[in-house]
Amino acid sequence: MFCHEHSKKAENIGDPVKILLAGNPNTGKSVFFNRITGIGVIISNYPGTTVELLSGKTRFNGKEIVVIDLPGTYSLGAGSMDERVARAAILEEKSAIVIDIVDASNLERNLYLTLQLLELQTPIVVALNMIDEARKRGIEIDHEKLSELLGVPVVPTVATRGEGIKEVVETALKVIDGKITIRHMKVHYGRDIEAIIQELEKIIKERLKTIPRNIRARTLAILLLEGDPEIVEEIKNIDSKVVEAAKRLAEKVEELHGEPASLRIAKERYGVAHSIAKAVTTRYKRKTLFRERFDTLTTNVYTGFPIMICVWVGLFSLLLYGGSFLEELIVFGWESYIAPIIDEGLSYIIPNEFLYHVISRGLILGLEAGLAVVVPYVTLFYIALAILEDTGYLTRMAYLMDNVMHKIGLHGRAIIPLIAGYGCNVPAVMGTRILETRRERILAAFLITLIPCSARTVVILGLVGQYIGLLAILLIYTLNLAIIGVSGFFLNRIIKGETTGLVMELPPYRIPHPIPVLKKTWIRFREFIYIAFPLLILGSLFLSTLEYSGLLQPVASLMSPVVVGILGLPALTGITLFFGILRKEMTLEMLIVLFRTTDFLAIMNIQQMIVFTIVVTLYFPCIATFAVLGKELGLKTAILIAISTIILAIIIGGITNLILTYFWT
Amino acid sequence: MKFKFQFLKIRGVTLKTKELGEKMEECLEILFKLEKDGKRVKMTELAEKLGFPYSSMTVLLQKLSSMGLIDYEPYKGVKLTDRGRELAIKVIRRHRLSERFLTDILGFDWSEAHEHACKLEHVITNKIEEKLDEKLGKPTVCPHGNPIPTVDGKIIFENDIPLSELQPTEEATITRILDENSNLLRRLVAMGILPGVKVVVKEKSPLGGALVLKIGDYEVALGRDVASKICVKISVPPHRRRRRRRYGKERTR
């Protein structure tokens, strides 16, 4: 998307205008994006990374506009992948205009990014967002003065109500057409820092004929002094002398000020941001908002944990009752109305009886699997997750759970994908992207595969719940949590790599806006369908081929040493476990199909049920999850995780079987 | 301090007593900063930081050595003696006091303060130092958040405690970030957590849990491990703040 040829083309008249949305996280950037664009949003990974960029098209005054939503970042240094991508996109899209979305209730810190954008000399328009929110907090900002100081247009907006959005886009277009000229404010540093910057600038101008990505010499000098890892690496390959000079000068700064050059420069940039913010802000006295009082309750030790538990219970009961109700509805509708039509249609089209059986069964079961799990559970879960996310509650939960997560080598933020795992492992694994290091992502992804998703919950409820009781369900869940805890504890010791701590903004509580919530749900849902559906259908076709060609029996007998010998289960359950790879609740459905009865007591005794349930919960993280693991972490890691879970399931299942045999009989 | 040796040739220019004194003081100051882990400092390194030609260094170091301020062994490097360290701390004290004076009283921008303080530190007498300290209200940190050594030459870090030790409602100023991991430092700086910034601990989870910091208009959750790497100086202890809050409530009633 950002290749060079393309950006050249974009300069021609008639090609769409590109608008990049930059800004801190929690500034209403996604609401802003959704307000500009319609439903046709494309997610693409930035080349070579897992960082997602959303892009959408819109028409404005007869002009076609492509809007790209950059990842929300606090700065533009290449500290994280997100920042790297945001900066790379801005530097590569020379013809594009950047709309910098600034939170008016938190101007000073937001201006830090704005100043860095100004230093890059890209054309920008500042959208001073959430002015209503700022007013509620007793803050009034003189946007005209801000515009004068920064030298770029500043438009006040309230994105949630759509106020000012049109004006921002209009202003951006005027800047592109040259109707408004931008005078980038020069960020002035202290005199001695300035002298050093100028010295390095001179060296850069002398030694480098062209600077990659058209960065100005002054900006490059500042970036090098800050020791920006990406830029330093890039320049080192061109002329290592420049980097050496920068290093020497940075040391000089450190010697002068007793602190690293990067910190010094950041400090002074904050100083500039502070003085600008101070000059344009008026503060009034105001009352404590109800939301703020609630905020205190949710982070307080004594009230925070009970509230969190209530939220969890609410979330899971919604999934359990709401989800299973919807599932039954869909399965009933599918099996009694749609499936027969497909079946009949296929029987006309395909003359070969064997092929017909394979395809019809595979297709119908595969589609049903997708519809029965995806539509009810995943959609509900996504909506709930998006609401929790947009209110800002998830960050409070992460804060409260930080301590616990540290014990398993993660930090608070990992709780978000882990909770998502209870809905469905697929989006949960995708959600590990919010973690900083690969080590943390692998760890979290592994633990997610052990979490009983909604499909596994069906098995737990259907077998243990129905035939043993509530206490047994709780026992299984507790055992599962213990297994996750212990695995995390050991994995933390085994997997090498960097650990990071929790540094996370707690945005003020906000009332979620329905459009972004639904859109977010739809985008995640769509991504899930792309990955899961084809696999479900393919896997289903494969299994039905095995079934009809009579290969199932030999496979089952191959597995019997483990299934019968170690786990003490009936031999035929091995086949159902095979189907469980496709979708965990199929283990239950296949039991019915294979044994031709719905009375599970006729198939297994209580002890076997418990072992069977435990094994189903732990072994192989279903084919869709496996595919996502492969996509996110690489095939090797995915295979390793899958094998580990199978071994874990056999060991835990075997031990449970042994213990139960001793104490039960 | 007074130096007996009157002449020293640097870059062919003969320095007068005053200038020589300045250079020597600066040399001690830099040595103090470089020496931190107790190892000998290489002469080349010192010369580079001081902006001195290598040839003049030997002379300068010999003089300092003969005055018993440094322990200088050719080819091995330089080390401060106890007396040298004392003097170095005194210079640092004067430098940081000057910075405070420049920013607090003369209204200099704190980014400029350092440069001017470099000149000022050498002309301050004991008497001026004393008066300055008084006038400024005995400050403990310079505008950049570094500690000002006390009169008896101690660099107080007693008020400088890890952020993780702070109790809820306590207000503090960040003094240092102990960064082993520059990536962490970058993340903190990007979120506005850096020396000189005022923070209030809003909540603290028990049993080594995370804490919520209020920084200006926003809140940040920090893991206890991260918080233990940030040093702060308490500015408002918890009880005072609470009392103030109670008064406020009564008044509104």
Give structural notes.
The complex is a heterodimer of chains A (665) and B (253). By secondary structure, chain A is of the alpha/beta class. Chain A has three domains: 4-177, Rossmann fold (3-Layer(aba) Sandwich); 191-283, Helix Hairpins (Orthogonal Bundle), CATH 1.10.287.1770; 303-664, no CATH class. Chain A has 28 helices and ten strands. A seven-stranded mixed beta sheet of chain A has the order 2-3-4-1-5-6-8, sandwiched between helices. Chain A has a two-stranded antiparallel ribbon with strand order 7-9. In chain A, helix 13 (290-299) crosses helix 14, helix 18 (425-431) packs parallel to helix 27 and helix 24 (573-580) runs antiparallel to helix 25. The longest helix of chain A has 49 residues, at 301-349. Mean pLDDT of chain A is 84; it is low at 1-12. By secondary structure, chain B is α+β, with helices and mostly antiparallel strands. Chain B has three domains: 8-80, Winged helix-like DNA-binding domain superfamily/Winged helix DNA-binding domain (Arc Repressor Mutant, subunit A), CATH 1.10.10; 89-156, Arc Repressor Mutant, subunit A; 160-240, Roll (SH3 type barrels). Chain B is built from nine helices and ten strands. Chain B has helices spanning 17-34, 43-50, 54-66, 82-105, 110-120, 126-135, 182-190, 224-227, 238-252; strands at 8-10, 13-15, 70-73, 77-80, 160-162, 171-177, 198-204, 211-215, 218-222, 230-236. In chain B, strands 5-10-6-7-8-9 form a six-stranded antiparallel beta sheet. Chain B has a two-stranded antiparallel sheet with strand order 1-2. Chain B has a two-stranded antiparallel sheet with strand order 3-4. In chain B, a hairpin with a 2-residue loop joins strand 1 (8-10) and strand 2. In chain B, helix 1 crosses helix 4 (82-105) and helix 4 (82-105) crosses helix 5. Chain B starts with 7 loop residues before the first strand and ends with a helix. The relative contact order of chain B is 0.09. The interface between A and B is large, with 59 and 50 residues. Strand 10 (503-506) of chain A pairs antiparallel with strand 9 (218-222) of chain B, so a sheet runs across the interface.
